[in-house]
Amino acid sequence: MSVLPVLRIYAPLNAVLAATGLVAVAALTTPDMSGRSRLALAAVLAVIWGVYLLELAEKLLRRRAGDVRDRTPAIAIDVVAVLVPLAAFLLVGTPDRSLYCAVWLLKPLRDSTFFPLLGRILTNEARNLIGVATVFGIVLFGVALAAYMIERDVQPQKFGSIPQAMWWAVVTLSTTGYGDAIPESFAGRVLAGAVMMSGIGIFALWAGILATGFYQEVRREDFVRNWQLVAAVPLFQKLGPATLVEIVRALRPRIVPAGAVICRKGETGDQMFFVVEGRVSVATPNPVELGPGAFFGEMALITGEPRSATVSATTVVSLLSLHSADFQMLCSSSPEIAEIIRKTALERRGAAPKG
Amino acid sequence: MSVLPVLRIYAPLNAVLAATGLVAVAALTTPDMSGRSRLALAAVLAVIWGVYLLELAEKLLRRRAGDVRDRTPAIAIDVVAVLVPLAAFLLVGTPDRSLYCAVWLLKPLRDSTFFPLLGRILTNEARNLIGVATVFGIVLFGVALAAYMIERDVQPQKFGSIPQAMWWAVVTLSTTGYGDAIPESFAGRVLAGAVMMSGIGIFALWAGILATGFYQEVRREDFVRNWQLVAAVPLFQKLGPATLVEIVRALRPRIVPAGAVICRKGETGDQMFFVVEGRVSVATPNPVELGPGAFFGEMALITGEPRSATVSATTVVSLLSLHSADFQMLCSSSPEIAEIIRKTALERRGAAPKG
Amino acid sequence: MSVLPVLRIYAPLNAVLAATGLVAVAALTTPDMSGRSRLALAAVLAVIWGVYLLELAEKLLRRRAGDVRDRTPAIAIDVVAVLVPLAAFLLVGTPDRSLYCAVWLLKPLRDSTFFPLLGRILTNEARNLIGVATVFGIVLFGVALAAYMIERDVQPQKFGSIPQAMWWAVVTLSTTGYGDAIPESFAGRVLAGAVMMSGIGIFALWAGILATGFYQEVRREDFVRNWQLVAAVPLFQKLGPATLVEIVRALRPRIVPAGAVICRKGETGDQMFFVVEGRVSVATPNPVELGPGAFFGEMALITGEPRSATVSATTVVSLLSLHSADFQMLCSSSPEIAEIIRKTALERRGAAPKG
Amino acid sequence: MSVLPVLRIYAPLNAVLAATGLVAVAALTTPDMSGRSRLALAAVLAVIWGVYLLELAEKLLRRRAGDVRDRTPAIAIDVVAVLVPLAAFLLVGTPDRSLYCAVWLLKPLRDSTFFPLLGRILTNEARNLIGVATVFGIVLFGVALAAYMIERDVQPQKFGSIPQAMWWAVVTLSTTGYGDAIPESFAGRVLAGAVMMSGIGIFALWAGILATGFYQEVRREDFVRNWQLVAAVPLFQKLGPATLVEIVRALRPRIVPAGAVICRKGETGDQMFFVVEGRVSVATPNPVELGPGAFFGEMALITGEPRSATVSATTVVSLLSLHSADFQMLCSSSPEIAEIIRKTALERRGAAPKG
After folding, report:
1. How close does chain A come to C110, measured CA to CA in Å?
2. Largest alpha-carbon pair distance within chain B?
3. Which of A222, A301, A316, C237 would suit a FRET pair with A131, their CA atoms being 20 to 30 Å apart?
């Protein structure tokens, strides 16, 4: 629970620092730059390095104190981000010294939840991706061989060996088309046309595999995450497991920053909300505060009437929202959930006629 | 209900006006143009501006009268489309004055239903799209660094700094391939080949994410829209909610302009229609007019016989059509719907043996 | 039924004739060609035109006799394919006369089942495709405007007007990258990088829409076609509609040319077959011939034993095949189908212990 | 069963050999190479050829002995890989002799499971792929004709005939964009813009078809493979077929090399494992060995407690893993499976309180 706000602060800071550092590294390589600018950029790098050092030190201390349970590869990235530039500063000569700060490229990998997802997709689809890469390789060599045999007498300086023809083949097969090597004979041009179409086909196969893998993994991941969140809502614990699965599929998680308005009095709403973590305040004449397990905004689904009160987040809040259309689908397949929500809503309304 | 025909008139007019205006803006920037043509184009811009002014004035008046409930951002676009060219005319010098009419690019955003859809997809998939953009950025910087180190001695004027190498990297990674910077060393060309393949992979990942997001959002949106339309058909209100969900999934909405023929006597049909809004006329010996909630063409699904009468739209009509194949799927999973349609159809036939 | 073999003959002939004709048209435009070759190519065009004339005449005659029920647009294409070259021959001067034979491009549209499918997809997705095209247009104009303002002073001959900048924008946004116009300023290059990434995104959106539309329409079309074929198999008519829908989803249609072997004695098979149209002969000691509605190869699914006899097609046969894996899925969800197939198979085996 | 480890050894060896050979073939075509390097590369080719000869001889011998049941096309590839270079060595002159070793490109096709999958997808989608290729062809010819008519007077040396215009059209339609032929007239540039957009559309259609076909075929293939593996697990044989189908869908196959650790004591696990083939050893105080049909790691799913023992593979093991999220989905839809696993787990725990 308490790890969430910390992550929210560190991840963007890390990204901004890394991006700034990399821009400075890039700028330092431009030839026509005054000594003063060069110094300023080096100072920027030094500052970022210092921040990383402090961050690492703090993390190691807190880890010792048992406050943070960080994964080992994340700490390893932090260590490398500090040590590599230090070693470069001590061992490498001036002009290329700053290039070693490019190791900060690894920093965004640290906190991202996308890279583990990507890793799982690539693992799941490894067999097919290797298959397509093999097809790519075979086509590439075959095409280069054919182009070499067709064009070697016409343009010996551009198609005079298979490696040269392969350069043309990869530029064409990926539809990059630099235009530095172009077949001139009729047969060569027919071949080139076929290569371009094959390139599009291989590309499409690749897209198909990644799209399929992505869809399956994302659907699975969403299910696992929502399942864990749903377990924290008491209302749902009265339901049988089959209904629970359907609810899990219908809910959409959302994180709201502290102070933000979640719904405004008088608006017509099309969703209700469940509080998973954090607290929200309902601006009724006697303001009410709701915590984990509470829900609000359900009248929008049942009667369609406008919001009866403004609700805003008092802390960072993790919510699950249930949209009107999903609620209707849910109710039609399992009437018990509709019944529970309706009954609880009416009870509450009886208790608080203003709310 | 009454907002539909108005939208139908304004949206295309807006698109045509905006397109004409933008063509005029583009044409005004061509250097070799006679003063007379220049004047004519400026007049076109002035006329369009005038139309926009009138449109805005009318909308503000009607809004005051409470006739139109327009969304605030839409009105904001209308105001900006009038004020920005006016300000440019008053404050900016001659040659660039007309460029400010490019603000009319915003006009098509006003009435489109696609942009909100696109917005929702991008919001839903934000995490993954940011992830892919991060991968793109990391690969871009890494590749530029590698290319800089490999090629900086061979081609100092093209790969002499990381920003220069980055230009090559982005042109290659996106498989654009201008051909202005091309690696010459063997290692550089192997790197370029790997970059092109990575570019295709990133592209494919992007396509996979957008395809997945698009599919989910469109399926959801179709459900919501059809659900609202189905609520207007009395026949369906006898059915339980589970059956209703299946019907909603099977129906396809369609808008028919006034005067158009919907089905022609003697043709073999493969769909029946439900009127949601507007009126249709059935050309039987005693012509009949059907309004919202009525249905026709059902014999095509039940007996497969040719259409017994021509039906045409007397007003703009919003229909739901049920195709033969979908009807068969529907009947097999919930026989009650088949029963209802069959019974009603036979009753009607008994009442009107010609129809 | 009898229309099938005729189509099988005409469609490829049409494609070959049209392709030959178009190659001849293309060859006739090459400048360095002897008068003799030119004459030969003209003769080829004349012959094809003659064949098309005969085909049209025969079709019109048979249509009059009521033998063929051809769709009107198909006949219209046949008429145009004859009349346009004739008119060009009579009215147009020599060099460009043959170009009018390019109207034969329409011929492949005539018999294809893919083009109606494509048409339905484009119609279904029209709203989204127009939306993406609008996004493309807006981005194109916006980018051209930005490039014009950034680069007009640096390269007035290439970015001196919005239309010129638009040419660069479309070449870059589609990642074609001719390399004839390349931004030189730093801001221009950053813009170009953003444009390439947007281009990839728009492309991906396009792919996502078409993939979604394609998947839905193909699934629907397969269902309709299989449903019609299944209606011809007596065995299945004992089943309830819900089971029937599942069978329709599991079967895969296949057309086998006359004389081909469908399964060979002693092989291990993983599918059974239903005859929809045509006849097959089973090479048992007393050869048996099976017609529409019969099935064979079912022991492969039930006992997994090798094929007990070779079966070959005596006419063009239209089959439905049921694979082992699909059969197992089918049996688990509706045991009655398994029961029917098993019982019928064992009865038959009792009656013919060799078969 | 025994064929598995052999395949594991041969397939990567074959790939490495073929890749090495092809690199040598490519290197031999580079003009500026010393006689010594040339000799070394020829020696590499000879060695690879020798290995292939030995491999073929061994396979033919073992095949005679009935040890290996290899498919005929696989043997045919082995024979061709030996005979073609031999024939080239005997019959062809020096410089091009080594090119014939390019026949080794076929070797990776031999053991891959991806190519049969690809073949099935292309067969299933043949009709649609041919349809898109036809669209491509028609657009290509139409565009070339238009470009020829627009640009032939402006650039007779580049658009002077339809074949020349077609070269431009294919380079543009595939978004390759070499930049060797670029329309100069205004109409030509508008045409080019439309061509680029069409190219993207055709590409997207292609991707949509392949993605759809891929998804369907992979899902089907996974089902068949898992079904066969599940048949070897006794625990599951108590279940009804409907439940079995759901389990098959939830399980994920995995092959673990001999000696590898499958789960480590004290870790929190999120999956349980079923042994399909091979043996694993459980490092409890009295080490236990489990064989085909056994399962372990189930407490992770039921109580969520950390692994109670380290499990490692003693032979190459084929496992099925059941993830926590999939288990929850499974339990909610068919409580009997949860019951069976829970009961068996608790019995085992009672019998072995340390395990």
Report:
1. 25
2. 92
3. A222
Instruction: For residue A210, list chain B residues with Cβ-Cβ distance below 8 A.
Output: 201, 204-205, 207-208
Find which of A71, A125, A143, A161 to mutate to test the D interface (most D CBs within 10 Å of its CB). A161
Q: Are B144 and B166 in contact (CB under 8 A)?
A: yes
- Determine what percent of chain A falls in helix, strand and coil, rounding each to the nearest 5: 65, 10, 25
Alpha carbon distance A298, A342 (integer Å): 8
Q: What is the DSSP letter of C285?
A: S
Comparing CA positions, the residue from C150, C162, C139 lying closest to residue B25 is C162
| CA-based nearest distance D216→chain B, Å | 15
- b/e C234-271 (16+ beta carbons within 10 angstroms → b): ebbeebeeebbbbbbbbbebeebeeeeebbeeeeebbb
Contact yes or no for A224 and D174 at CB 8 A: no
Select from A29, A139, A222, A334 the residue whose CB has the most chain B CBs within 10 Å, as the one to mutate to test that interface.
Answer: A29
Where is mean pLDDT largest: A40-54, B212-226, B245-259, D236-250?
A40-54
> What does the alpha-carbon distance between residue A288 and residue A303 come to, in Å, rounded to a whole number?
22
Say which residues have a Cβ less than 8 Å from residue C166's Cβ, sequence separation at least 6: B26, C140, C141, C144
Q: D175 with D200: CB under 8 angstroms?
A: yes
Closest-CA distance, C129 to chain B, in angstroms, reads 9
Given a cut of 60, whether residue A6 has pLDDT beyond it is no
Q: What are phi and psi of B277, to 5 degrees?
A: -155, 145
Q: Write out the two tokens for A14.
A: 């890390």
- Helix-strand-coil split of chain D, %, nearest 5: 65, 10, 25
Q: Distance between CA atoms of A130 and A116, rounded to whole angstroms?
A: 20
Residue D215, min C-alpha distance to chain B (Å): 12
| pLDDT grade for B71, boundaries at 50, 70 and 90 | low
pLDDT at B354 over 50: no
Q: Which residue of chain D is at minimal alpha-carbon distance from B212?
A: D211
Which residue on chain B is closest to C130 by alpha carbon?
Answer: B114
Nearest CA of chain A to the CA of C30: how many Å?
13
pLDDT digits (tens, 9 = 90+) for C244-298: 667 777 777 777 777 788 888 887 777 888 887 788 998 888 888 888 778 888 7
Q: Label residue A339 exposed, middle or buried (CB < 10 Å: 0-12, 13-18, 19+).
A: exposed
Contact C196 B171 (CB under 8 A): yes
For residue B104, give the nearest of B88, B121, B123 by alpha carbon.
Answer: B88
Tell me phi and psi for residue D314, to 5 degrees.
-90, -30
Those chains having 3 or more beta-carbon pairs within 8 angstroms of chain B are: A, C, D
| CA–CA gap between residue C180 and residue D178 (Å, rounded) | 10
Asked whether the predicted pLDDT for residue D215 surpasses 80, the reply is no
- Report chain B residues whose CB lies below 8 A from the CB of D179: 178-179
Does residue D8 register a pLDDT over 60?
Answer: no
Q: Which residue has the tokens 């074949």?
A: D163
**Higher pLDDT among residues B350 and D55, named by residue:** D55
Tell me how crowded residue B135 is: count the other CB atoms within 10 A of its CB: 21
CA distances for B54 relative to B2, B48, B50, angstroms: 22, 10, 6
Q: Which residues neighbour A183 within 8 Å (Cβ) at sequence distance 6 or greater?
A: A147, A150, A151, A154, A155, A159, A168, A189, A191, A192
pLDDT band at D229 (very low <50, low <70, confident <90, very high): low
Judging by DSSP bridges, how do beta strands B317-323 and B311-313 pair with one another?
unpaired
Report chain D residues touching chain B, CB-CB < 8 A: 175-179, 207, 211
What is the distance between the alpha carbons of residues D355 and D280, in angstroms, rounded to a whole number? 14
CA B275/CA B253 separation, integer angstroms: 10
Among C141, C224, C244, the residue with its CB nearest the CB of B22 is: C141
